[in-house]
Design a protein that fits this description.
heterodimer, A: mainly beta, three-stranded antiparallel sheet, 9% helix, elongated, B: mainly beta, Pnp Oxidase, Chain A, eight-stranded antiparallel sheet, 8 strands, 7% helix, 44% strand
């Protein structure tokens, strides 16, 4: 599950974060958004078409990997 | 000393994630900046529970125990409002923040807690925001259920 993307908000010099959907409620309480939320945390959604990353592990060893020789 | 009911006494606020830097001593400005949910609150269940670990031994018939972990839960019921839906809009699922509870009410305007007043501070994340069953002749309400992701302070003092 992706982490919710938060928006930074501010009121009278105090800072906080809220979800975009709750921004109107905070704005009615005197808070204002200080960014568009693009700089806050988020996870990439996994997709079924994403390439499989090959890693060396005891259960899966890449025979073409020469780095440890 | 008096035994009181929450109506016209208790004050409930919700502070934004990151807005309170010290849950043991939120400042008066931080409390004042919280969204006042008092007028939307129907009921509130902020409780903690401790576990005991049995430690019986062969040398006694008395079953001793020792202190184990503790946990907390937070649920609250709020009204919906077709014009000012503040509670519903403030608490979507995934919201992080702090519930500030002044059970006996603060000494500020409209029971707002101010410096030296006692409050409870509950760091939470809303895990569900669900409407109550809709039925005829019943006001629309919803329940916000929260995880308590940091140990709450049930005896915090508002700082100046």
């Amino acid at each position: 599950m992706a982490k919710p993307k938060y928006i930074e908000i501010e009121k009278d010099g105090q800072k906080g974060k809220c979800l975009p959907s709750s921004l109107p409620a905070w704005e009615r309480n005197g808070w204002t958004a200080v960014d568009d939320g693009t700089s806050t945390e988020k996870d990439e959604e996994p997709t079924e078409d994403a390439p499989v990353e090959v890693v060396n592990s005891p259960l899966f060893f890449d025979v073409n990997d020469k780095t440890e020789e | 000393m008096a035994r009181i009911i929450p109506n016209e006494n208790t004050w409930i606020g919700f502070a934004a994630d990151g807005a309170i830097t010290n849950i043991s001593a939120p400042t008066a400005a931080q409390v004042a900046a919280a969204v006042n949910l008092t007028g939307f609150t129907i009921s509130l269940n902020a409780s903690s529970r401790g576990n005991t670990v049995p430690t019986p031994a062969f040398d006694s018939l008395f079953e001793t125990s020792t202190a184990g972990t503790s946990a907390a839960t937070f649920d609250a019921d709020f009204y919906r409002d077709d014009e000012d839906d503040t509670a519903w809009e403030t608490l979507p699922r995934g919201t992080r923040g702090f519930f500030i509870i002044s059970r006996f009410g603060g000494t500020g305007t409209d029971n707002l807690p101010i410096a030296t007043d006692k409050v409870e501070v509950w760091p939470v994340m809303v895990t569900s925001r669900t409407m109550a069953n809709m039925s005829s002749n019943t006001v629309l309400t919803f329940t916000a259920s929260c995880s308590v992701n940091v140990e709450p302070d049930e005896d915090a003092t508002v700082a100046a």
